[in-house]
Design brief:
Layout (H helix, E strand, L loop, with lengths): L1 H13 L20 H4 L7 E13 L2 E6 L2 E6 L16 E9 L4 E10 L3
Parallel strand pairs: 3-5
Antiparallel strand pairs: 1-2, 1-4, 2-3, 4-5
Length: about 120
């Protein structure tokens, strides 16, 4: 039986299909905050935002907005994982606050589209 499972996984990988297991903590995590609240967090604080990406600013930077304001978000190209969002799509971004003396932005570690 174990040999058959290993053979099936090897075949799937050879065909270019991924085999992913659900691992790690599955309980509650951080609750989403507003853009206004995020701007008051400290540098490196973890953050979850829900809203819309309204504009591409170049060099992996985007303008993100919700009902309370806008904030710049850096989304590494690898995080898109082959999906696209438009300016009217609702998304959830996880990441951390990147703050210095002149600006506050979010460095994303994950992004997903929220289906309505």
């Amino acid at each position: 039986m174990k040999r058959n499972v290993a053979l099936m996984i090897s075949l799937l990988l050879a065909m270019g299909l991924s085999v992913e297991a659900q691992e790690g903590f599955t309980g509650p995590g951080l609750s989403p905050v507003t853009v206004e609240e995020a701007k008051n967090l400290r540098d490196d604080d973890p953050v979850v935002l829900q809203g819309k990406i309204t504009r591409f600013l170049g060099d992996e930077k985007y303008l993100f907005s919700d009902d309370t304001g806008t904030i710049r978000v850096e989304i590494d190209n690898r995080l898109w994982r082959g999906f696209s969002v438009g300016e009217n799509d609702l998304v959830e971004i996880t990441g951390e606050i990147d703050k210095n003396f002149t600006r506050v932005e979010v460095e994303a570690s994950g992004i997903k589209k929220i289906e309505r």
